[in-house]
Amino acid sequence: MRGATSAKWVAGAAIIALAATACGGGDKGSDGAQGAVDPNGIFSVELGEPENTLVPSNTQESNGSLAVNSIFSQLVDYDAQGKLTMVNAESVTSSDSKLWTVKLKKDWKFHDGTPVTANSYVNAWNWAANVNNAQLNSSWFDAIKGYTDVHPAEKGAKPTADKMSGLKVVDDTTFTIELNAPLPYFAYKLGYTAYSPLPDSFFKDPKAAGEHPIGNGPYKFESWDHKKQIKVVRYDDYKGPDKAKNGGVIFKNYTTLEVAYQDLKANNVDVLRQIGPKDLPLYRQDLGKRAVDKPYSAIQTIAFAFYTDQWKNANPKVLQGLSMAIDRNTITKTVLNGTREPADGWVAKGVLGYQPDAAGDITKYDPAKAKQLIQDGGGVPGNQVSIQYNSDGGHKEWVDAVCNSITQATGVKCVGDGKADFQADLQARKGKQVKSLYRSGWVLDYPVNANFISDLFRTDAGGNQGGFSNKALDEKIAKADSAASLDDSVKQYQAVEKDLVNYMPSIPLWYYKVNAGYSTKVSDVDYNQQGDPVLTDIQVHKK
Amino acid sequence: MGRYVARRLLQMIPVFLGTTLLIFLMVYSLPGDPVAALFGDKAADPTTVAKIRHDLGLDHSIWRQYWDYMSGIVLHFDFGNQIASGRPVTDILSSAFPVTLRLAGLAFVFEVVVGIGLGIMAGMRAGRLADNAILIFTLLIISVPVFVIGNILIGTFGVNAVSLDENTSELIVPAMVLGSLSLAYVVRLTRTSMAENLRADYMRTAIAKGLPRRRVVGVHLMRNSLIPVVTFLGTDLGALMGGAVVTESIFNIHGVGGTIYESIVRREGTTLVGLVTILVLVYLVMALLVDLLYAVLDPRIRYA
Q1: Assembly ipTM
Q2: In whole angstroms, what is the distance from residue B186 CA to residue B192 CA?
Q3: What are the sequence ranges of the domains in chain B?
Q4: Residue A371 and which of A250, A280, A444, A467 are 20 to 30 A apart at CA?
Q5: DSSP one-letter code for A393
Q6: Average pLDDT over residues A24-34
Q7: Any stretches that span the bilayer, and where are they (chain B) (predicted)?
Q8: How far apart are alpha carbons A49 and A67 in whole angstroms?
Q9: CA distance readout (Å), A226 to A53, A140, A212, A259, B101
């Protein structure tokens, strides 16, 4: 008994860790469902327990996001091409990209019957930005004028105001947002969960509201049985364009993806967001047309720790050489079971401004040229690299494959540097203790190419953990951010992306795909840019 | 007897303090910051992190944190709040323990009834066909890992995953899987000890006295043979509860095992220490019960 415990533990860790790496996706394809559509039918979706309570400004991870986004609608949303669409907003306009005017659609109501007004938005955002409320998404509001008054930059400092001066209510359905500096794609940010409105009842007891959220979205919260299920039902008075075509959703918690898949085959759960590695080789065969295989807007890269001696004064040619030494096609097809698609740039598909082949040749496998480039650039310092990753996320296999590819093509020694789990990996990255290279990933926040460039490669940007810094690039980004129009800004960012090959802030590897499936009871199952199922479009069929 | 129990209960206090302190220190020394990790891949906003740490008391020294934590438990039965969700840890505990308790209880009953039953069968016929068959069967169970048995049952025999209601009837198969390994040990312990005691002097005396066979086996032989088995079973209930991680995850049971694993991954120190504290208590109480049972089974053992 005693002897077996440690083996059991290791096996358990592997199983659950795999479940922790989430990505979802799918083809609209024709359907397995036969019976007539039941407009009031309720279906179930596999979903892990949200880490935080269901407060929009405190929800960042994927489990909470799907649940919160079913209950809350924002001002805007975007379609599959990354084009902005209006939801709760009648219009979002600006003449100078600095002062934005939001007009709300009339007669919208929260699920408790109170009206959705300009105040519902302004109060919610002021509350979310306030450092006293310690919301995870508070920095989403940092572009708004007066943010530092409610959220000072120094640790432990008290806010000097409880409202951001940039938010002004004009009348019940109109308010204005003044930014610190022009931001042509600001309207896109408004589609993020953090920008949801909150009803008055929220502020009386935020804690209770997190357990029983009242929103303005297509579904009304019904119940949350922790670690088991969350139930939401269609909100019949919903006025938005994405009214639910079904009666409601039950988010079901499974201990592992394998169990969820078994239950899908038994028709006990209707929609999955991902398939476990064990079932990937067979799921297309098992599910036929109900198998989903679709890219979404997320990218996996290998980033350089530019603060190390090895890369401090790196010649971009060496970095280009390393990139060309990776055989993306073979690795995605074999080791990754076709669950990824080779990347050809830094911006993912489904994002405004995506351009095919943006990185040019440097993502093409060419051992001879790779070797030549590394030689021309003066070689890899120490002739050895390591790639840091978290061992609990199923990354080991492809990291080893990438390393083999690099070594075979160029003779540069390459080893995987596995950290015990995601926490240990993050700590090394955030504490700037990465020794050479590290695994990095990015899922879109909003579908504009700026999100994949400015937020990752600008000096001190939120996603820039490798310490990449280049003045010329910073200037170009600043210029693109202050462009006169959205189109212009996107175009400038496109030029910046093409230019990135000369800096090589990271090596693009591949785009993520949704590998998922659904039961015979539902049809019209599609997945959005985040890799999440589009709940409101799903149709439930009678038996 | 009463004094003995009182003394044992008092001894639990230092053991309890020592184990909780050890676990607390170990969680504290794990790499990774649970608050910064809430932000995932993105940069954590330092002021927000500082505020959350302050609200949770994580900005105090480790000794102060331990003191606050222990005094919360002892004085108010308050295990603190979770870092990410802010839910009270007592809520988490009270939702995780009942189902695991049922699962472990079923597994325990299974291993006691079937294990001792098979053990008696084998022990009484030591060296013969039934004995050999049972020994091979237990060898098989010991050598095949639990997750293999579980996955074969689900994949090949079409056993369904446990539904979200977690009805007791659904827990029977997982309980059998969970209890299978201990079952094998119980069989072997019972068998060996029975086979040995069959040849003991008191057995010959009992038979010579002309006692019915049923009484010889049921009272004289069983009582003496069960001491090692009871020792094993006593500690095993705790092991069943804490070690159910694999079985729970295979069969979709949302109990203690999964919660412990998740707390480690997310560095939810308070939850983890709370869970383990309760497991420690279970072990301590079971050890006391086992010692008291010795006196019942073997009249030669007396506690003053």
Answers
A1: 0.82
A2: 10
A3: 2-76, 90-297
A4: A467
A5: G
A6: 46
A7: 12-30, 103-122, 134-159, 171-189, 272-297
A8: 10
A9: 10, 28, 12, 19, 18
Closest CA to A166 of A135, A206, A129: A129
Domains of chain A (ranges, CATH numbers): 8-70+209-294+515-540 (3.40.190.10), 76-205 (3.90.76.10), 296-512 (3.10.105.10)
DSSP annotation of A543? -
Question: Residue B135 contacts by C-beta under 8 Å, 6 or more apart in sequence?
Answer: B122, B188, B191
Place of tokens 């006025």: A239
In tens, the pLDDT along A444-490 reads 989 999 999 999 999 988 788 899 999 999 999 999 998 889 999 99
Kindly determine whether residue A52 and residue B85, on different chains, have CB atoms separated by under 8 Å: yes
Percentage of the residues of chain A whose pLDDT score is greater than 70 = 94
Considering only the C-alpha atoms of chain A, give the largest distance between any 2 of them, rounded to a whole number of Å: 72
How many residues are present in chain B? Answer: 304
Q: Are strands A539-540 and A84-86 parallel, antiparallel or unpaired?
A: unpaired
pLDDT band at A13 (very low <50, low <70, confident <90, very high): very low
Q: At A539, which helix (H) or strand (E)?
A: strand A539-540
Question: Which residue from A minimizes the CA distance to B154?
Answer: A262
pLDDT above 80: residue A417: yes
Nearest CA of chain A to the CA of B78: how many Å? 18
Distance from CA of B252 to the nearest CA of A (A): 5
N- to C-terminal Cα separation, chain B: 5
Q: How far apart are CA B255 and CA B245, in angstroms?
A: 8
Rounded to a whole number, what is the distance in Å from the CA of B60 to chain A's nearest CA?
14
CB contact under 8 A, A1 and B236: yes
Domain B90-297 fold: MetI-like fold (1.10.3720)
Q: Which pair of tokens denotes residue B24?
A: 């607390």
Whether pLDDT at B287 is above 80: yes
Q: Would the CB atoms of A463 and B51 count as touching at under 8 Å?
A: no
CA dihedral A257, A258, A260, A264 (to 10 degrees): 130
- Residue A117: which of A172, A65, A72 has the closest Cα? A172
Higher pLDDT, A86 or A32: A86
